[in-house]
Amino acid sequence: MLRLPHDLGAFIGIATIAAVGFSLPAAGDTATAHMPSANVAMTNSAPPPAGPTLPAQTIQRHSDGLFYVEAKANGTTIRFVVDTGATVVVLNKADAEKLGIPYDQLVSKASMRTAGGSSDMRWAKIDRLDMGAKRIEKIEVAVVEGGLPVSLMGQNALEQLGTLTLRGNTMTIH
Known about the structure:
This protein is of the alpha+beta class. It has helices at 6-20, 93-98, 155-161, and strands spanning 57-60, 68-73, 76-82, 89-92, 109-114, 117-131, 134-144, 151-153, 164-167, 170-173. 16% of the residues lie in helices and 37% in strands. The strands form two sheets. Strands 2, 3, 4, 5, 6, 7 and 8 form a seven-stranded mixed β-sheet that branches. A three-stranded antiparallel β-sheet has the order 1-10-9, with no helix packed on it. Strand 5 and strand 6 form a beta hairpin.
């Protein structure tokens, strides 16, 4: 029987947090009430993107079964796990602080509904997110205080990066 380390089990539980969805910000928050939505294409039948075609990025599955990517957020390298079930990019507190986003000073408070209950989070925005030759500007992110060992690359970023194709142990972002 396969036994997962305790940290990986906790991570999978936290990843479920993002998969279930986020609540709207509370009354009086400065964040908009519009929740990001995304569709991740999983087939090769999507029409080609408008404008110049950028090179595809191929990512190998890690030994833990997940796909990890490194991206530069506001010029700082952050490691993300690709989570097609997460509605938005989720930063853990440590990564947010690397970007100069102090969790305690974020005024837009909300909570995430998860399989395990509710967790506090706060809304923030990243001015620039670069992954390979692709750039996303002014992307909304959720920042969680604890329990998440690695940040999550959610659908609001994935939809802007391109079409995702999963084949065996490789994921390609076109």
